[in-house]
C-alpha cells in the first residue's frame, strides 16, 4: 500500500506553484518548535559533556600552568593512581548501595503503613513528606549540629539514655562519618519512595488480596507474592533513578563533612570537586568525571542487557 | 500573500535567533546613571551583621559621595563561594575589579597572572610607610606588589584565667613542654581539657605551619629563581624536626591535653568551645574579640605569645585586598582600596588586627598581639590548593589514623613536592633551608 502511494507521488510530482504539502508544512512547524529545545540541548548538555571528555585528554589547569596540550590517557592514569581513588570508588559504592537500599526499605514500610485504614492517615501522609522538602543544605547543617559532641541534641540524648558513656563525634571519626551521612540521607530521601510506592500500592486491585486470603495466604505471603511483584515496575524505576541521583550526589556530603575526616567519606563527586576547585586541575577533574560517566553507562548497559535477556527468556517460554 | 508569509516566517526566525543570542550573550557590567558613571565590582566575605560589614558599607557610602562618578557594587558571599567565584570568573574573563580574600589564595591568583601590579600606585601613596614592611614583602613577587593587606590575623595564645587559677597554675605555658605538662593538671583539677586545636578546615594548616615554624621548618624553600622545594626528605635533621611537630600533636592527644573529639574540630568548634569556657587555652586571632565579648568572658581572658619550641614563631595571616589585572578602572579601584585602608575602616573594623602601624587600639587585645607580626610565618608563594589539603590530611593521619609521625612528615614532604611539580614550581636544584 505504502509503495503504491510513493509510486503515485512519483507519477504526479507537486508543482512549484502548489508549494509543500500539508504534511511537510506540519513537519517544518514541528521542527521549528523543537529547534529551541534542540539548541538548548546542544548548549546546556551536549557542549559541556563533550568539553569534559575533550578536557580529560588535555593538560588543562585553571592557573594556566597547563599548556592545553594533548596528553592522551595521562590524566586517567593519574586519577586511577591517585592515593584516594580506590577509597573514593568504594565509598561511592557504599554510599549509593546503602542509601538506596535503606531508602527503599524505609519507604516501602512507611508506604505500607500509610496504606492501612488508620485514623489520621491524611495527616501522616502530609507530615512524612517534610524531610524531602527540606533543602539539602538546611537538612545537612541541622543534622551536623544535632550530631555535634559538644552541644548536639542527639549526643545529649544518647548520653542521658545511657547508650553512650560520653559524647561521640559521629562525623569526626573515620569509621562513622560516612555511615552517619548515609543515615541522614536515608532520612531525607525515603519520603519520595513512600509517596511513589503508596500511589502504586493503591492501584493494586483489592480482589487479588481477597482471593489470596481465601486461599489461606497470610499477610507476609501476600506481601511477597502479590505486593512486591505488583510494585516491581515502579520499584525498578525508583531504584534506578536514585542510583543515579545518589551516586552523583555532592551537596549532602560536602555540607556535612567535605569528604573528611582524612577522606573517609569522600566519594567520586567530592574528588572531582577537589581536583577542579581546590587543585584547579580541570584535566584530572574531567578525567574522573568521564570515568564516573563511563561507570554509570556500563552499569546501565549491563542492566539493559539483563532486562532484554529476561524478556527474551519469557517470550521463549 | 506568499511574500507576506515568507516575511512573517523570516521575522519569526529572527526573533528566535535574537532571543537566543541575547540569552547567551555575556553579562555586560551594568552602568547606571550617566555614561561617565564608573561601576566598581567589589566582592567581599563580610560576616552577616558584622562590624566590618557595618563600617565597610559606611566607608563605601562616603567614598561614593566623595566620588560621585563611582558606584561600588558590593557582593557579599562566604569565603568558599568567594574563592570558587574568583577562580571561575578569572577563567571566564569576568573577574571583579576588587576582592577581599584569604592570603592562601595569593599565590594561585598571582600564578594565574590575574593580579594588577600595584607598585606604581603604592610608591605614590602618602601612607605607604604605615604598613608593616614584612607584610608588604610577603605580598611582593619579583619586585611587584600584587595585593594590599586588609587585616593581619596574627595568632596568640588566648587563655582562660579562671581555669588556670582553678588548676593552681600561675600563668600560661611558654614552651611546648610546659603546655604538655599542664594538660593532666588542668584535667585533674578542673575536669576540662587544657588546649584546643583545629584538625579540619582552613585553620588546620594555619596552625600546622606555625608549629613547623616554631621548629625552624619551612614548607618549601625557594631556590632563588622562583622555584621551590620541600627539603625534609633530603635532610635527616629537618625530617626529625618535622616528625617532632607531628609527635607534638600526638602527645597532645595521648596525654589528654586536648579533647579527643577536638581532633576533628574546625574553626567554629574551636572558637565556640573556647569562648564558652569548655577548655583552657587556644592559639587564635584577634577576631575572637566579638565572640569573647558576646560570651561575656572578656575579664577572664589572658593573651600571651604562642608557646615556643626551637624558635619563637606564630602564623601571620595576611588577609589581602586583590585588584584584578583586567579591571578597566585601576585608579578608581586603588582609591577604594585606600579608603578601606583608611583610619575610619581600620579603626572601626580592624582595631586590633590592622596592617597599619599607627592603629593598635588599647587594652588586653592590643597588648596581647603587640610584637607578634615580627615573628609571623607565612605560607610560601606557591600554589596552595593541594598543599593545604595535604597538611590537613597529615594532621588527621597522626591524630585519627594514628600513623607514625616520621612517616607522616616524610609523606607530607613528598606530597608538597608532587604538588609543586604539578604546578611547574618544583626546583630541580639542591636547595637548603635557612
Automatic annotation (TrEMBL), chain A:
Transmembrane segments: 29-54, 94-115, 127-148, 234-256, 282-307
Keyword RNA-binding: no
Pfam families according to UniProt: BPD_transp_1
GO biological process, alphabetically ordered: transmembrane transport
Main location: membrane
Any one GO cellular component localisation term in the record: plasma membrane
Keyword Transport found: yes
UniProt-listed Gene3D superfamilies: MetI-like
Family to which the UniProt record says this protein belongs: Belongs to the binding-protein-dependent transport system permease family.
The protein's name in its UniProt record: Carbohydrate ABC transporter membrane protein 1, CUT1 family
Originating organism: Terribacillus saccharophilus
Automatic annotation (TrEMBL), chain B:
Keywords: Signal
Signal sequence bounds: 1-28
Pfam families hit by this protein: SBP_bac_1
Protein name: Carbohydrate ABC transporter substrate-binding protein, CUT1 family
Amino acid at each position: 500500500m505504502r509503495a503504491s502511494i510513493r509510486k503515485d507521488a512519483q507519477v504526479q510530482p507537486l508543482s512549484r506553484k502548489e508549494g509543500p504539502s500539508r504534511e511537510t508544512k506540519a513537519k517544518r512547524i514541528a521542527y521549528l518548535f523543537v529547534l529551541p529545545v534542540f539548541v538548548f540541548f546542544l548548549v546546556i548538555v551536549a557542549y559541556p559533556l563533550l568539553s569534559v571528555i575533550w578536557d580529560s585528554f588535555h593538560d588543562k589547569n585553571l592557573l594556566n600552568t597547563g599548556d592545553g596540550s594533548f596528553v592522551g590517557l595521562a590524566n586517567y592514569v593519574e586519577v586511577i593512581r591517585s592515593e584516594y581513588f580506590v577509597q573514593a570508588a568504594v565509598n561511592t559504592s557504599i554510599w549509593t548501595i546503602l542509601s538506596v537500599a535503606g531508602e527503599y526499605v524505609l519507604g516501602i514500610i512507611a508506604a505500607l503503613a500509610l496504606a492501612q485504614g488508620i485514623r489520621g492517615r491524611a495527616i501522616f501522609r502530609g507530615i512524612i513528606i517534610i524531610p524531602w522538602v527540606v533543602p539539602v543544605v538546611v537538612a545537612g547543617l541541622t543534622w551536623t549540629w544535632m550530631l555535634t559532641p559538644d552541644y548536639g541534641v542527639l549526643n545529649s540524648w544518647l548520653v542521658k539514655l545511657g547508650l553512650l558513656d560520653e559524647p561521640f563525634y559521629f562525623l569526626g571519626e573515620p569509621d562513622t562519618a560516612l555511615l552517619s551521612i548515609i543515615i541522614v540521607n536515608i532520612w531525607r530521601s525515603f519520603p519520595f519512595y513512600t509517596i511513589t510506592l503508596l500511589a502504586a500500592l493503591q492501584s493494586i486491585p483489592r480482589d487479588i488480596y481477597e482471593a489470596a486470603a481465601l486461599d489461606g495466604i497470610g499477610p507476609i505471603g501476600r506481601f511477597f507474592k502479590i505486593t512486591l511483584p505488583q510494585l516491581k515496575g515502579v520499584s525498578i524505576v525508583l531504584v534506578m533513578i536514585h542510583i543515579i541521583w545518589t551516586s552523583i550526589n555532592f551537596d549532602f556530603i560536602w555540607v556535612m563533612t567535605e569528604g573528611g575526616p582524612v577522606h573517609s567519606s569522600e566519594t567520586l563527586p567530592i574528588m572531582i570537586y577537589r581536583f577542579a576547585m581546590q587543585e584547579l586541575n580541570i584535566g584530572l577533574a574531567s578525567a574522573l568525571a568521564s570515568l564516573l560517566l563511563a561507570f554509570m553507562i556500563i552499569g546501565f548497559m549491563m542492566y539493559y542487557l539483563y532486562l532484554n535477556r529476561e524478556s527474551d527468556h519469557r517470550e521463549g517460554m | 500573500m506568499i511574500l507576506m508569509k515568507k516575511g512573517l516566517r523570516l521575522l519569526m526566525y529572527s526573533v528566535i535567533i535574537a532571543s537566543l543570542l541575547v540569552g547567551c550573550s555575556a553579562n555586560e557590567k551594568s552602568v547606571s546613571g550617566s555614561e561617565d558613571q564608573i561601576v566598581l565590582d567589589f566582592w567581599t566575605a563580610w560576616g552577616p551583621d558584622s562590624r566590618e560589614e557595618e563600617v565597610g558599607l559606611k566607608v563605601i557610602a562616603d567614598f561614593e559621595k566623595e566620588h560621585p562618578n563611582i558606584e561600588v557594587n558590593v557582593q557579599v558571599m562566604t569565603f568558599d563561594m568567594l574563592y570558587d567565584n574568583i577562580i571561575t570568573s578569572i577563567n571566564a574573563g569576568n573577574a571583579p575589579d576588587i576582592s577581599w580574600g584569604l592570603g592562601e589564595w595569593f599565590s594561585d591568583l598571582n600564578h594565574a597572572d590575574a593580579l594588577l601590579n600595584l607598585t606604581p600606585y603604592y610608591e605614590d601613596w602618602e601612607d605607604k610607610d604605615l604598613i608593616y614592611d614584612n607584610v608588604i614583602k610577603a605580598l611582593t613577587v619579583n619586585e611587584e606588589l600584587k595585593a594590599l593587606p586588609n587585616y593581619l590575623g596574627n595568632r596568640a595564645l588566648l587563655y582562660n584565667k579562671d581555669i588556670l587559677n582553678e588548676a593552681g597554675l600561675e600563668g600560661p605555658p611558654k614552651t611546648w613542654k610546659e603546655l604538655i605538662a599542664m594538660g593532666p593538671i588542668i584535667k585533674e583539677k578542673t575536669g576540662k581539657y587544657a588546649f584546643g586545636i583545629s584538625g579540619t578546615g582552613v585553620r588546620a594548616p594555619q596552625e600546622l605551619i606555625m608549629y613547623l615554624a616554631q621548629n625552624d621548618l619551612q614548607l618549601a624553600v625557594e631556590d632563588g629563581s622562583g622555584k621551590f622545594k620541600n627539603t625534609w626528605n633530603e635532610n635527616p635533621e629537618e625530617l626529625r624536626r618535622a616528625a617532632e611537630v607531628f609527635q607534638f600533636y600526638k602527645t597532645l592527644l595521648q596525654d589528654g591535653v586536648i579533647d579527643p573529639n577536638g581532633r576533628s574540630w574546625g574553626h567554629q568548634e574551636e572558637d565556640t568551645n573556647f569562648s564558652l569556657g569548655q577548655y583552657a587555652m587556644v592559639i587564635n586571632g584577634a577576631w575572637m574579640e566579638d565572640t569573647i565579648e558576646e560570651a561575656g568572658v572578656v575579664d577572664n581572658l589572658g593573651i600571651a605569645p604562642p608557646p615556643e619550641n626551637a624558635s619563637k614563631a606564630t602564623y601571620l595571616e595576611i588577609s589581602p585586598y586583590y585588584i584584578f589585572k583586567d579591571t578597566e578602572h585601576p585608579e578608581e579601584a586603588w582609591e577604594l582600596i585606600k579608603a578601606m585602608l583608611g583610619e575610619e575602616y581600620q579603626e572601626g573594623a580592624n582595631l586590633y588586627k590592622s596592617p597599619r602601624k599607627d592603629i593598635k587600639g588599647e587594652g588586653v587585645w592590643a597588648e596581647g598581639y603587640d610584637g607578634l607580626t615580627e615573628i609571623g610565618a607565612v605560607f610560601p608563594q606557591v600554589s596552595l590548593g593541594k598543599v593545604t589539603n595535604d597538611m590537613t590530611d597529615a594532621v588527621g593521619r597522626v591524630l585519627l589514623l594514628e600513623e607514625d609521625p616520621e612517616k607522616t612528615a616524610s609523606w607530607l614532604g613528598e606530597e608538597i613536592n608532587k604538588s609543586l611539580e604539578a604546578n611547574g614550581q618544583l626546583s630541580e636544584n639542591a636547595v637548603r633551608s635557612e
